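Work through this protein:
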Amino acid sequence: MRAQPKHQISSKGLTVWRVYGVIQTVILCIVGGAACYGTYYFEWPSFIYFIAGAVVVLSIILSIWLFPKIRWERWRYEVREHEIEVQHGLFVVKRTLIPMVRVQHVDTTQGPILKKYDLSNISISTAATVHTIPALIMDEADHLRARISELARVAEDDV
């Protein structure tokens, strides 16, 4: 069995995923507050207060603290001459090999939160699907995109 891929995504990616968790938790707080208001106003059963509170507390623990940390520890990638290996997963770790001859094009994307942290995602498109390597430092993402593009061109010429 091969060793796991050697490159890990930026530690800033952990921060970005925690920011996404905060946004998700704020949305759940709004929904929970609406449920609590409805419970008070319409005299629904009082256990709804406890359910709304438990959902918010679970979201804080899981979405902000636990899941981003596990996800960041598992995310690995490696670009080799003939293939790209990507490893990711929260509970089930998935390892994917993408042959260079299958790569059609490579994109980088950057939303407002990634831009704030100078990060970018790389999307590797094949005929079957799109594989993403998230939260790379912008310079590293640009360098990796150029390298994959060149290796894919060389692999295509060899066919």
User: Anything to note?
Assistant: The first strand starts at residue 7 and ends at 8. Strands lie at 7-8, 76-79, 83-88, 94-99, 105-109, 119-125, 130-137. The helical segments are 11-42, 47-74, 112-116, 138-158. Residues 80 and 90 are 25 Å apart (CA to CA).
